[in-house]
Each structure stands twice: as C-alpha cells, then as structure tokens.
Specification:
The complex is a heterodimer of chains A (391) and B (260). By secondary structure, chain A is an alpha/beta fold. Chain A contains eleven helices and 16 strands. In chain A, helix 2 packs parallel to helix 5 and helix 8 packs across helix 9. Chain A starts with a strand and ends with a strand. In chain B, strands 3-2-4-5-1-6-8-7 form an eight-stranded mixed beta sheet, sandwiched between helices. The radius of gyration of chain B is 18 Å and the shape is globular. Classes of the chains: A alpha/beta (391), B alpha+beta (260).
Chain lengths: 391, 260
Amino acid sequence: MPPLAILHYTATTALGRGRDAQLNALRERRGGLRRNDFGDDRLDCWIGRVDGLESEALPAPLAGWECRNNRLAWLALRQDGMLEAVHAARDRHGADRVAIVIGTSTSSIGASEEAYARLEDGAFPADLQRPIVHTPHSLGDFVREATGLRGPCVTVATACSSSAKVFAQAARLIQAGLADAALVGGVDTLCGSVLFGFNALGLVSQAPCKPFDATRDGLSLGEAGGFALLERADGAPGLSLRGYGESSDAHHMSAPHPEGLGARLAMGDALARAGVAAGDIGYLNLHGTATPANDTIEAQAVAALFPGTLHASSTKGWTGHTLGAAGIVESVIALLALEHGVLPGILNSAEHDPACGEQIRFGNAERPIRYAMNNSFGFGGNNCSLVFAAA
Amino acid sequence: MSTLSATIEGVGFWTTGLPDWTSARAYLRDGTMPDAAPTRPSPQLLAPNERRRAPDTVAVALEVALAACNDAGRDPRALPSVFASTHGDLGITDYMCATLAGDPRSISPTRFHNSVHNAAAGYWTIGAGCTQATTAISAYAATFAEGLLEAMVQLAAGQDAVLLVGYDGGATGPLAPVSMSSGLLGGALVLARNPKADAPRIEITITDGDATRADGLARIAGGNAMAPMLPLFEALARAGDGVSLFAGRGRTLKVGIAHG
C-alpha cells in the first residue's frame, strides 16, 4: 500500500495525559495500575484509571454528548496539539475531505448503566434522555461535533481490535480518494459492563496483570483515549503507516484459536502489505492481555514468524487492557519507540513462561529502530496488525 | 469527487412479516404478504442449539448474509465482510444494564460476550469457517451508508468481492423510548468488483443533500433503526435508477443503479 504520513499522534491513559506522560512512564518503568476504586460495588482487582475525568465537564456547546467516554475523548483530543492539527488539516483540505474513523468497544454504555441505576418511575432520568449517548456511535458523533469535520464519520466496534482497525479503514478511504486525511483513534472508559463481564468470564486477575509471566492469571482493565492524524505521504521524512493486516479466527467468541491462526494471518498480511520482512521489525507491541490462553498462543504465533532477535512486549502492565482503545494506545507506544528508540519491556512480570519464545522481553531496551508493529485481537476472533515506519 | 462502482451479485433480506427477498419483492409489486411468516429467522449456518440461543440480531444478520451469498453463488468462506448495525443488540444492552443495576455479579458470561458490537460478525466467521477480515461499524442513522462505503473501498483496495450486512433489532425495557427501534430487520448485499451478466451495477458519490424516502418496505419495517437502508432495497426491487442514502447531517451517499 502507499504509505500514509502520521503527522500527529497522542494518547491519554492511566499513565497520564499526552505522549510525554506515556514515554516517561515507559522509560522509568512506572506503572499506572491501582486497586479498583471505580463505582460502588468494587471487584477485588486492579484498574488503569484516568485521573480527573470527574471534574472535566464538556464545554457547553458539546453538553449534549456529556458522558465519561466523551469526556475522555475530549481530554485526549486536546493533548499534544491534536485539536489544532485537526483544524489545520480541515483548513488545508476542506472539512468534507477529512474523515473520522474512531474505535471503541463499549462507547458510552456507562451512561446507559447510570440511567438504569437512576430510573424514575421506570424511565430514564431527564438528564440522560439523550439518545446519542446510548448508542455505539456516541463517540464518532461527538468527535465530529468537536472537530467540525464533515467527511465520512464512522465508529468501528470490533471489541479489542477496534482502534487498530481504524487505521486500515482510514487507509482505504484515503486510497480510494474519498478523503485526503483522516482522524483515527479510539476511546474506551471503565464501566460496569466490562468489569463485571470480564469477571464473569473468569479473565480478571486480583493482582496487577503480569503479561507473559509463567504465573499470570488474568487481565487488568483500563481506560484510555488516543488519536492520530493520517494523510497521504508526500515523501517528507517522518512517521508513517506502512501496512495493515486483518483476519478472523473462525474459532470462538471469547477464546483465541489454539494455534493462533488468525494472529498469524493478520501479522503475515500486515508485513506483506508493508513490503517489510519479519526480520526488519525492530519492536512488536503484543496484544498480551495476561490471560493464560492469549499470551502463550500469541507468543507461539510470533515465534513462528519472527527471528529470536525481535524485541516484543505487552505494555498492558502499565496501562491495563484498554479494550477498544488498546489499538490506538499501543500504536502510540510503537510510534514512540520509532521516534525515541525506547523499546518497552513488560511490567510486573518476572518468571518467563517456557511456552513463550525469546522474542518476549521483560526488560526495556533503547536503540533506534526503523519499523514497529502492533497487534490487537478482539472477541469474535477479530484480529488486526499494523506496521509503522520511521523516516 | 471520487466515484466508486460495484456489481450487486446477491441480495438477502428479512424482516418481520417478509422473511426473504422474494417475498419483499412480491410485497413491493402487489402488496401481498406470505401467510404464517416466521417470527424469527432460523439461520442455517449455525448448529441447531446455537440457532435457538443466538440473539435476534445475530440470527437476522446471519440469515440475510447466507441468503446473499447463495444468491451470488459465492462461498461465504471466501468473502471479507462488513457488519453494519446502529445499536447492536438492544435486548442484550437492556439485560446488561438492568443486571448491573440489580445484581452485577450475576452477569451471564455468554450474554456479556454476545454484547460486543461484532457479535454477528464473530458468529458469521465462526459458522462459515471464514478467516477473512470482518468488521462491525456504527454511524447512527448513517450506519448503512458508512457500511456501504467501507465495502466499496475494500473493493477499491483490491478485494474481488465483499459481503455487506445491515441489521438492527427492537429495543426493550427502559431503553425502548430512548433508543427507538422496533421489529427485526436485516439486508445483505454481495458486492463485486467485476461486472456480471444480469446483475445491477451501482456507483456511489458522497454529496450534500437529503436522503430518498422509502415508501414501500418502510410500511413494514420503518420503525427499525436500520430503515435508512430501505430506499436502496426498494430501488433494487423496482429497477429504479438511483437513490440517496442518509450519510450524516446534511450529507448523502448518492447510489446510481444500472440494471443488467
């Protein structure tokens, strides 16, 4: 595929607001997980919570979209000059020619949960009788209103691969000539549905998650938001999206394919589309949820494709699993690795799982790299891999 | 402004009262409706026990998806797919929110994993044994137009054929007066890059303007959140030459149709 320039990118997670907060925490190996302090009924687990959302009300013109998820979207959009960059792209290309492709898993279902908790005579309370916050496109519609863009505007909701797939869909829209630039990204916030849902599946650890550790026993949930601005590359040096690969496991709704079939297809397809050899990837950010099943299968799929020299890691020990935002957050980490040469290892993990190959690195490394990759896999066996390049 | 084109090789359709494309076309032609139409689709792609347990939205999506593949003579395993739904399964959203408000620790793990917006896409790829890419999108009233756009750009990016499925179900519980959607509605198209004898070609352009109003199928399924797709299905049935689909505030997706 023709490369797409990544002119701006940002993320806000439990590690803090904006790129520097992510980079510094990764470099200093300072995690963002805390004991669960979300909601009234608190499961015994650890979470990656974004501080300050409770006091970050949306500005009056956007009040119709008010909810925790759109607050995080608005907060993330204003870091690292992203909103100004979007306005500049709008002025450069015209509002009709900039697309919005945004990923989320649960969008603002937290608002629907709140409405059910505060029913008045069986009906939603007046302040929550706003249909837009009770539907998945709450996020995409909010971003459209907040940016003034008028190009194609869509919310991708393929569970935990959502905000990786946005890069692929945006690349296609630009390649087909339907847009000259695209704002991509994703936002997911903590809510009862995911805390109690993943708990019901037996996938939540009571301790901070330990990706790829031999004693790992489940994930830690987190919330996050992030964005990237894509444009047709003009040959100038800089970061770029070089390839994407998408596949389906065709196996099970909530368990990965035992041989990692879909993961291999997605990674192989992304490398092929990028025209990059597996040996040229300098850093791979893994899906690495820290569930017993995911990590072994993903490590084996990686070992089947990549040489032992690859530095691969999951950064979910820092941020928690941010679900529909994981794709953008971990793409941002891959882009930081390309820009700064900081290759994160794995936080909280100490005991190597003999079933995982030497590609899986617990310690950080610092060296310049040319290509980085990100894996995001979701329920339904929905997989996406992305290849990014420096210079 | 760029124009993209495709062949519509196959169509699938199901709504309460009109359980396939043949009966939908008959209804548009002379107003007849089949006697004793089933109240729920029975998607043959799923094993019998799964067929009964699947959420309504999954059942209708898989039903029309398979019908469109059969109509096109395409193997479901070979097609990448785009699943477009405004709300996903509102019945499950109602269950999740009501349970969280009452007894959160009793959430059903199966209903939780069925609550993801890509549940139908997941069951489709599992049932069909399809490892091709699939996606699940929403764009509120522009959901079908954005789904059609994504299917068309997949063809432009080199795919030979793509399956597009639009579907929504009915709202239940306290959500019903807010997320208004009633009945069960699904429509599917197999879109292909190359022309095929006797199959209609479409071309699409995004522009400013208003959407075409559906006037036939809307009498049956107009209350469903996926109703904005109905003008296209009506035009296909009546050999119309084009429609405009709602594509966001003030925007439309103009679909020109050339019948083979």
